[in-house]
Amino acid sequence: MSEHKTLTIEWSTEDIISQAHDMGVDLDIDQAYEILEQVIDDHDASVGINWDVIEYHISDSEYYIDELINRDDVENQ
Asked: Is the CB of residue 35 less than 8 Å from the CB of residue 58?
């Protein structure tokens, strides 16, 4: 009988919220979970999941775009 060993790497909503905060976007846990689900759905095994991939998905989200629009509106007042 062969022995199998595995390791896993986990990403959490806390990771998404922290990265979004660094990008100037405040997310709640449900928004972060939605983005995390998108990261998983679009997972490319040849690239993996890393901070660049997470940042891409945050910047592609409606929450990031809304934040940019709101920030622009405030600056133009």
From this structure: yes
Q: Judge contact between 16 and 35, C-beta under 8 A.
A: yes
Domain that holds residue 49: 13-75
d(CA 23, CA 14): 14
Threshold 0.70, pTM exceeds? yes
Query: Considering the domain boundaries, does residue 19 fall inside one?
Result: yes
**At residue 74, what is the residue type?**
V
pLDDT band (50, 70, 90) for residue 29: very high
Dihedral over Cα of 58, 59, 64, 66: its sign: negative
Helix axes 51-59, 13-22, angle to 10 degrees: 70
The per-residue pLDDT for range 60-69, each reduced to its tens digit, is 998 887 887 7
Residue 13 has a pLDDT of 98
